[in-house]
Amino acid sequence: MLSKLYFLCIGLLFFSGNPFAQEKSNVKFGNVSEKDFNTKIYPIDSNASAVVIADIGYSAIEGNTKGWFSLVYKHFKRLHILNKNGYDAANVSISLYADGDAEEELNKLKAVTYNLENGKVVETKLDVKASVFKDKISKNRVVKKFTFPNVKEGSIIEYEYTITSDFLQNLQPWEFQGAYPRLWSEYNLALPEFLGYVFLTRGYKKYDINDKKLRSESFTILDSRGIGASERYQFTANVSDNRWVMKNVPALKEESFTSTIDNHIAKIEFQLSEYRQPLTYRNIMGSWPKLANDLMEADFFGKPVTKDNGWLKDIVKPLIEGVNGNKEKAHKIFAYVRDNFTCTNHSDLFAEQTLKNLEKSKSGTVAEINLLLTAMLRYADIEADPVILSTRSNGMTYPLYPLITQYNYVIARIVIDGKIFYLDASEPRLGFGHLPVRCYNGHGRVINKTADAIELDSDSLMERKSTTVFVVNDEKGNIVGSMLQTPGYYESFNLRERIKEKGKEQLITDIKKAFGTEILVSKFELDSLDKYEEVLGIKYDFDFTGEKEDIIYLNPMFGEGYKENPFKSAERLYPVEMPYGFDETYTLQMDVPSGYEVDELPKSMVVKLNEENEGMFEYRISQSGSGISFRSRIRISRAYFMPEEYEMLREFFNLVVKKQAEQIVLKKKK
User: Fold this and answer.
1) Could you tell me the pTM of the whole model?
2) Domain hosting residue 367, numbered range
3) Last residue of a domain, one of 224, 259, 283
C-alpha cells in the first residue's frame, strides 16, 4: 500500500530556502491592459477553453474581539475565457462553514469582467448586492454563488474576497490544480507557533517555490463580550511565513480507471492538531483509540449498538432458532437485514434515526443499516464491530491521523472461529462475506477499544471469468453453437442488477448485438441467479442466421473480445486504479462449416505484460482436420499501476485489441 501513497505526502512538511523564493506574480487586481488579450492560444494547453492566469491565496491568524483568534483568508483569481466551452469558469461558488447561528463571513468581494472593444478595455463590475445568492447545502455548509456579467469569448475575469472565520479547524486548503490550466498558483500561510497544524499534501507535481521564513509578531486579543470593560491580552510569538508556488500547472482531467480525481489534484490541506504555549496546551486531534471510544459512546453511532437492545429479541430469536453454529446464524441475520431494508444513501457515517425506528421504517442510510446489522449480530452473541472507511469516489484517507471527516461509509466486521468476515447489508443482491467494489479503497478502522487498522485493497481482488463456445455443423449442414459462461463475482453482481432492472430479454438482446454476426438465441438459462454468494452461470444455444457467402470472415471471439483500448490518452500523470485484477479465459472448439475450407488463420502469440509476469495475453489457434481450436486468455494480477507503467499497460491493451479483432477467413470449396 505504501507505493500507492506516492502522491499522499503525509505529515509536517519540510522546508528549505529557495533561490527563486523572491519571484512574485506581477498580476494585480484591476491591472488589465489591451496586451493581456493578445494571447489566443496558450502553450501550456493549445486546446484549453479557459486558462487561469493567476490564483493567489493568503491565510493568517489574528486576535479578535471575542477573546480568541480568527482565521483571515484572502483570495484573488484571474482567468482568460478563450471560447464558449470555458464559460463554466465564470460561475463561482464560495463555500462557508456554519455552526448554529455562527457562520464564516464573506466580505470585500469584488468581481469584474473585462472585454476588449474597439481596441479599448471595457469593465463590467458585478453588482454584489443583487447578484450574489446564498444556498444552505447542509447544517454546516453554506455556499455563496455568483456568475460574472457580460462574459464573451475572449473575456478576462477576475475576483477577490476575504473570509473571516472563528473556526480554527477550518484553515483554508488550497488546490494548485483543477479543470483548467494554471499559469501561476500560489498559497501563503502565516502560522503562529502557538497553533499546531498537520500539513497534508496530495498530487504528483512538485512545488516551483517552497519557502519558509520566521519572524516575530505581536498578537492582541480583546474580550468585549462581558457587561463591563473589555479585557485586553497582548503577547508576542514567532510566526512562520510559508509560501508555496506552482507554475504552468496542467489541467487534470478524469480518465478511465480513476477512483476519484480528487486523489490526484495537487493541493495542500490542514488539520488543527494542538494548542501550544503561551496558550494552555491541548491535543486537539487525539488518537485513533480515543476517537473510536468517542464514537462508541455517541448516540449517533456506537451507543445504539452496544446497549442492551432487548427489543431485538422478537426479531433475532426467530431468525436463529434451531440454527447450529455462529456462521449460519450470521448468514441468517445478514440475509434478513439485506433483504428487508432499503438503503437511501450510500455515503453516510452517522445514524440520524434510532435503530428501533429503522426497524419500523425499513429504510435508512448505509450507516444505519450496517449499525443495525452489527447490533443484531452482537445480540446473537457473535463478535461484531462497525468499521468506518472511505469509498473510492470519496478519496483516500491519511491512515496516521484520526480525521473523521475523511470517512463516509460503515460496514460490519465479524469474527467467527478466528476467521474475519466483512459484511455490507446495504446492497440487495450482495452475498455474505462480500463488499461492494467501492469499499476497496485502502485504509479503514474497526471501531472498538483497540481501533484496529484494516486494509481493503483492490489488488486483493481477482475477477475470474470463463467462457466456452462450441460451434458444430448440424445434420442439415447449418452452423449451430452453444455457449457456457461463468462471469467473475462482480460481473455477476452487475448482471443481477441489470436483470432486475431490465429483465432477461434485454440481456439476450445485448448478447445478440455484441455477437458480431446475426444469430438466433435459444435455450437461454441462468444458473444461481438468486444465490448471491455464487457467480452466475450463463448458458444458451445459437444458430447462425446470415447468408452463406463465398468467403466468410469470422471473429473467433464472438463479441467477447476487447473492442477498444480502455487507455486512450497518450500519457497519464497519475496512477491507474482498476477496481480489481482479472483473469479471463475464452475457449472455442469449432467445426469448419460444411462445404468450406480454412483460407487463413490468425497467428498464435503469447505476450507478458512485464518481466515480473504480472500480466499476460495468450492467443493460441490451430487447425486439425476439419476442426479449429482457439484459446484467448488475459490476466492482469494487480489493479494499481504507477504513472510510469502507463505506457506499458496502454501498449499491452493496444496489442490485445488488435489481435482479438483478427478474423478467421473461410472460403467455399471449389
Assistant:
1) 0.88
2) 288-456
3) 283
